[in-house]
Input
Amino acid sequence: MSNNKRHNSDLVLVSEIMPDQLIIIPISSRPVFPGITFPISIQDEEKIEALEKAKEYENGLVGIVLKKEQDDKTETEELYNVGTVAKILKMTIQENDTAMVLIQGLRRFEKTRVIQKEPFYRWRVKYHYESDEHNSNELKAYSLSIISYLKELLNSNPIIQEQLKIVMSQIPRSNPALLIDVVASMLNAEKEKLQDLLETFDLIERSEKLLILLKQEIELTQLQEDIKKQIEEKISKQQREFFLREQLKIIKKELGLEKDDKTAEIERIEKRIKKLKIPTDVEKTINEELNNLKLLNPESPEFNVTRSYLNALVELPWGIYSKDNLDIKKVRQILDEDHYGLQDVKDLILQFISTIIKRKTVAGSILCLVGPPGVGKTSVGKSIARAMNRKFFRFSLGGMQDEAEIKGHRRTYIGAMPGKIMQSIKRCGTSNPVIMLDEIDKVGKSFRGDPASALLEVLDPEQNSSFLDHYLDVHFDLSKVLFITTANQLDTIPRPLLDRMEVVKLSGYILQEKVQIAKHYLIPKQLQQHGLKKKELNITDKALEMIADKYAREAGVRNLENQIKKIMRQVTLKQAEGEKNKISVSKRNLEDYLGKPIYTTEVLYNKNVPGVALGLAWTSLGGTTLYIEAAALKSKQNGFKQTGQLGGVMKESSEIAFSYIRSLLSKNKQTASFFENNFVHLHVPAGATPKDGPSAGITMALALYSLATGKPVPDNIAMTGELTITGKVLPIGGVKEKVIAARRVNIPKLILPIDNKKDFQELPDYIKEGMEIHYVDYFNDVLKVVY
Output
C-alpha cells in the first residue's frame, strides 16, 4: 500500500489509504475529476453488485473510468487507461432497479494490469500525486489567468453565474490543482477533451489545456449571445411593425379611410350577391353562411373554410346567360369555314341547333361525337360553340377514377373543392356554355367511386336541372348547358350512359378530302406556326396525295399534319442555312423530306394464288383492309388450325366457315376428298395485331373455298359479312369506314350483306362514286359474284 497526500482544501478531505487494486466502474457520459462530488446512475446488475461489494468490503472506494464508446457491452480495450478513484458517499436502489450513486472524486490513477474481467472489472493501479510546489510564480500566473477567464465567462454566461460564484468563493487560490479540476468539471467541452485533461499529469501543461478550453467556451458563449441578440432585434422589429400596422388600421378605420379585411370581404360578397339572380333556396343558404362569417374571428380556421365556401357560391354565374346566335345561315357558314367535308355530320348538327333555336332550350339533347383519333371531334365541338355564340370549355375524362372529380368533395375534407362541372361553369362565367367531356370511353373505376355513374346525373336531361355538387350542397340548373362528349369507340361506354346521348359518327376522311383539308386548313396553319410565307413554300397536290396515301393513311388527319410539320421544319432549316429561293415539294422530291413511304399497296398477291381473299375490317382507328390466307398440308390426319392472334368470336367464325365449306364441297365428287386428305391452316396477317369480330366470316369461307377448288379470288374485290352455319350472310357494322378503307387502296368492287344496303345508300355521293357494290343474302351469292 502507498500513503496518499492531502489536499489543503475545505472541499475535499482525504484520509483513506489508497489500495493498489480497484473495482472499475465504466461510465459513458464524461470523466469524473478529483475533488468533485458527482451523481451517477447505474442500471447494469453486475455494476450495481460491484458497487455494493466495494461499499461493503473495500471501504467504499471504486475506480471511475470513461468508456471510449457508448456500447452496452464494455470490453477492457474500450476503456481509457486513466481514471479517478472515488468514494461512494450514498447509494440508493430505486423501484426500476436503477442505482443512484453519489460519489466524490479523490485522485487520478493509471492502469498497470487487468486482474479480473468477470463478473466485473478489477485493475491493479498506480496513483499520481500532485506536486507540492504549488507556489511557483508560473503556476500562480496560470491560476490568475484561469480566474480571469472564469470572470469573463461569468459575465457572458448567466446560466452558470451563481454556480461559478459559489465555487470561486470556496476554492483556495493556493491549490491550483484543485482549481483546475473543479473548473474543468464545469465546462461543456467534449468528453474526449476532458479525458485528455484528466490524463495530463503535469500542472503547467494541464493549465495550458484548460485555458484553451475556457477560451473556446467563452467564444461559443459570445456567439450564442450574438445570435440571441440578432433574433431579439428581428422579433422586436417585427413586433414594432405589427403594432404600427395595427394602429394604422385602427386610425384609418376611425377616419373611414379603410375597412378591415373581414368587413371588406363581407361587403364584397354582399355586392356580388346583388348583381346575381340567385334562386331563393340558394340565397337562404348564402345568407346563413354570411351571418356565420360575421360572427367568426378572422384568425380561426373556420373563417377561411366559410369564406372559401361563400366565394365558391357567389362566383358562379347565377342567372347569367350568353345570347345565342339565332341565324342558322351564319351557323352553317361557321361550320363550313372550320371543317371541310363531314356533310352528314354538319347536317345533323344544324338540325340539332335549329331545334335548340326553336325551343330556346337544349333540354333533352346530349351529343356524343364518335370516331377515330384525328377526325376533328374536339374542333367540331369548338365550332358548335362558336356558331352558337357560347363560351366553350373542355376537360378530359380519360383515366379519371374519382367520382369527386365530377361531383366535388364534401366540405368536411381538407382541401375540398367543387367538381369539374361546376369549376367549368365558373370559368366560363355563363350558365349556358358548351362543355366538352373528352374521352368518355376511357373513364376509369376504382375504390374511390365510379365517375361514369356520377355522369349519369350530369348528362340526364330529366335530372340535371337540379344538379347537386357535394361541395356546394345546393342545386344548380345545368339544363341550359350544351354537353358534347367524344369517344373513339362505343363498346367501353356503359349502356345507361350511352342511352342518354345522341351519337354522331365521324368515320374519317378519304384521300381527296385529306388533300383538301391539307390545302385549306393544315398548310396555312403550319405556315403561320413556322413563320413561313405562302410565297416561300409550295406543296403540290400530287405531293399531298402521296403524303396522304403513303405516309398518313389513318382515318384522321393528325398524322398528315405531323408530316406537313416535318416538311416545314426542313424548309426553315434550309432557309437558316442560306436558301433564298422558293422551295417546291413535289411527288418527285417528297422522299427527300419524309424518307421512304411508310405504307405500300395492300394488294400483295397476284391473281394466280388460290386460298387468299381480301376482307374489310373496322378498328378504333377507322376502317382497314384485311387479307385472309389458307394453306393445305397433305396429311393422313385431317384437321383445321388458325393463327394471327384471333379473338374468341373470330375463331368461332373461322370454324363456322370451315364446317360450312366442308359441307358445301362434300356434294362435289372432285372436292369431296380434299378436307379428308389435307390439314388446313388459316392465317390472318399481321400476326402481332390482335383481331376479333364476326364480320370476316364470308372472307374466311371464300379463302377456304378458293383453296379447296384451286380457283384464285380476283384481286380487285373485297368483302365483309358474318356467316352462319347454314350459309346465311348477316349484316355488319362500320359500313362507311370499310368503304373508305376500300377506296383508300383503290378496290372498286365490294360485297356487302343485303341488310346493309340502306347503310351504303345513306353514305355521301363522293364516297359512293365509282364503287361497284354487290349485295348478298347467302354464301352462294358470294360465289356467283366472285366467279
In short: Residues 266 and 432 are 28 Å apart (CA to CA).
